[in-house]
Specification:
By secondary structure, the chain is an alpha+beta fold. The protein has three helices and five strands. The chain has a five-stranded mixed β-sheet with strand order 2-1-5-3-4. Strand 1 and strand 2 form a beta hairpin.
Length: about 140
Amino acid sequence: MGGINPYIEKAEVELPTKPYTVTFIMPNKTETKVEVQPDKIPYGSTGLPGSILDIAMGNGIDLEHVCGGVCACSTCHVIVRKGLESCNEGTDDEFDQLEEAPVTTLQSRLGCQCVPNGTMDVVVEIPAVNKNLVKEGH
């Protein structure tokens, strides 16, 4: 899937200019570190270029994204535990979608919209409740 949602406000992003690390904390509490290389962005066509979702998908990390990363659902909800201040500001459309996600916090973002600028390392938790109930068969 993937693409652009023409019905939402375009997020303003600053892409990184130097390498940095994103640590993904999985629902089972294991951690996976990814070295982000600015010249490899975008990794694919899912989510904003350089977004947490783009980085996850480009590095084999399973982060749900039912809408294809176009800010039309809340399944890519993540909690930015460290480095949130290096990420772009969320739009009203993103925060509207986040209202549909369970167990949100003040550090919650949609992975498809959250783009770190590379000025610091980032730690992202993928909540255990991030499940696609259709895909999971419930």
